[in-house]
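Lecture notes, unit on binding sites. The following record was shown on slide 14. It pairs a sequence with adenosine-5'-diphosphate.
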Amino acid sequence: MNVINDNGLIKITGRIDTTNSPEFQEKMLAFACDDMTIDASELEYISSAGLRVFLKLKKSVNGDISLINASPEIYDIFEVTGFTNLINVTKKLKEIDITGCEVIGEGANGKVYRIDDETIIKVFSHGAGADIVQQERDFARSAFIAGVPTAISYDVVKCGDCYGAVYEMLNAQTVAAVIKSEPERAEELGKKMGALLKELHSTKADTSVLNNMLDEYRKRAEGMAKYLTKEETEKIKSLYFTLKQCDTVVHGDFHSKNVMLMNDELIFIDMGDVGYGHPLLDIGGSYLGMMHLAEMNPDICEKYVGINAELCKRTWKAITDEYFGERADEGRKLAKIYGEAKYSLTPYIYNGMKGDMIENFVNRVRINGILADSFDISLAFENNIF
Ligand SMILES: Nc1ncnc2c1ncn2[C@@H]1O[C@H](COP(=O)(O)OP(=O)(O)O)[C@@H](O)[C@H]1O
Ligand SMILES: [Mg+2]
């Protein structure tokens, strides 16, 4: 057994039992500090005498103690003894080598590789931490348990310098790919997407795992105050404060490239933005993904949602006809209001936007977006569709 200070990270190695636990205690207390992180990658065994040292340590420091990189065996010891309730214990991530694996998809977050006939790995870009990947995995799992059709999520792994999430491989094509090769199916598949979304919006969420998206949007709208006038901020805030709280699932990024068609059945993928809240948050987001671009910048539409502007418009009409039924015209107007409202929050959401860029953005929204005087939002306060 040894305890080493490796550039500020405390590492414990070897076996800890009754014979060396007094020495272990002495060394650990010497290194004790607030919010302590301990690396267990080389810890082979720990007995109850060793665990008691963690109890003493917990009493002598303020804040959390985190034990990282535990082997599955070490993790089990902390888990069965209940110590995972006292200390944040995380397992060492499995490493997966993707050299030679076929790329089967690409999105905004990274690339998707086929590992074998049953599994794929979504490798996130550099900069996405393990917590972001773990969150997508947890959201996908929570939605799956709630009954949402989506791929099984297995594990979070390390892939060189990046992190990845391992999912069940769907033998399927994205709806966008199908519509692109068979444009005559835009209406049929749009209708199916509308039915799928309606089903999602009647599925109860596990609110202990997923985030409250209405609270999140309200916070974003309030955060826009530093870029907008008081009246402008109030206009956007009023849209989110008029919506009621709902405990049903929202996808957060619902468009033709995030739904796959497998044996005639539609399946959601890309669950990183899943949460719970009012359906209009989701439908507004889809408007932004599928229609805002199609109208404002048709040239780049295909890059984001996999189909061109004309096919987007046809698919969107079918989605909303199915979703809203007889009240589709009203529904589409509401979708546009919440889509343009979401768009206006961009400077708050993406911290990549700075100075002049924000000013130009806000000015454009003032001219032809939700902040234009001519943009009528009254329907949002009169609507009784939901
Ligand atoms: N479980 C899966 N089975 C098969 N293909 C998948 C699966 N998940 C994703 N893909 C493919 O990878 C692409 C990107 O995945 P996605 O989760 O949407 O990533 P991003 O968050 O980067 O948009 C998808 O459009 C799809 O083509
Ligand atoms: Mg995607």
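Take-home: The CA atoms of residues 253 and 285 lie 6 Å apart.
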